[in-house]
Amino acid sequence: MLRQIDHIGIAVKNLDETVAFYRHVMGLEVSATEIFNDMKIAFLRIGDSELELLEDLTPDGAIARHVAKRGEGVQHVAYRVDDIEQALQDMCAKGIELIDKHPRPGARQARVAFLHPQSTKGVLIELVEPQASSLPAH
Ligand code: CO
């Protein structure tokens, strides 16, 4: 059901500074940028997965609250699925608390849903069904 790590979401204070770190120190390149839901987002590809760097543009958004409370760092882990409705149904049947009972639009026109960290051993989990045309050709 889970195909691979789609991306790891990292909350940052300053997207440009963080992108510079990942480019110059880690040697990764930006594969996409987007303003989405009042967040500045940069994706950096590594193998079949990506890092998703997120800077909030509003002080009361989830990313800004994460940074205020815990500092910068990993905010969520996203798994790629083929059928997000089915995945949500399976998780629900297993007693997992869903933040999103139905898929909602995510960055890059993916369909996403979050699982509550209280029922996933402390990790905010995102399920991602990518838009078909956004997948890299193999
Ligand atoms: Co994400």
Please characterize this protein's 3D structure.
This protein is an alpha+beta fold and 138 residues long. Helix content is 21%, strand content 40%. It has three helices and eight strands; from the N terminus they run βαβββαβαβββ. The chain has helices at residues 15-24, 62-70, 84-93; strands at 2-12, 30-36, 39-46, 49-56, 73-81, 104-105, 111-115, 125-129. It has an eight-stranded mixed sheet with strand order 2-3-4-1-5-8-7-6. β2 (30-36) and β3 (39-46) form a beta hairpin. The longest helix is centred in the N-terminal third of the chain and has 10 residues, at 15-24. It is globular, with a radius of gyration of 15 Å. The protein starts with a strand and ends in a 9-residue tail after the last strand. The mean pLDDT is 95. Cobalt (II) ion is lined by residues 7, 9, 52, 76, 78, 126.
Quick rundown:
The protein is of the alpha+beta class and 138 residues long.
Q: What is the number of strand segments? A: 8
pLDDT < 50 stretches: none
Determine the N-to-C terminus distance.
20 Å
Shape: globular
The spatial strand order of the largest sheet comes to: 2-3-4-1-5-8-7-6
Biggest beta sheet summary: 8 strands, mixed
Helices, by number, come to 3
